Amino acid sequence: MAWLNDFNAALVSKLQPLFCTYAMHWIALLCLCSAYLQGGLTKALNFGAALEEMKQFGLKPPAPLALAVIVMEIGASALVLGGVFRWVGALALAAFTLFAMFVANRFWNMPPPKRYASENTFFEHLGLVGGFVLVAWHDLLR
Q1: CA separation for the pair 128, 93 (Å, rounded)
Q2: How much is the pLDDT for 4?
Q3: What is the pLDDT of residue 59?
Q4: What is the domain extent for residue 50?
């Protein structure tokens, strides 16, 4: 197994200069936050549609909740990208996503084939939760 350790060390030495940069770190965080920035901005620019989304999921009162979602999605993303209280922003987005999964993606209540798409989305969002927890974990270790 020594050859495997040598191979790993060689790969790490080649990839570190590319992947272990501030720019790559920030781009990865931007990718992780992109859906929340897009969602928050879309809701802010079309508040009527944001209200309809709240109503669709049975969330009341729709206006304050829509406003809270906009502020949370954009604000928490700004914390993650800005690096100040990054762990707070990351945990806020993780908690928001976890909550939203159980509101919007109740695949267990859906008939096939709609169930499969919703189930996929549910577990993709669970992956986002894990990513944000890792961001918080990494930030808290510093």
Answers
A1: 9
A2: 92
A3: 94
A4: 2-141
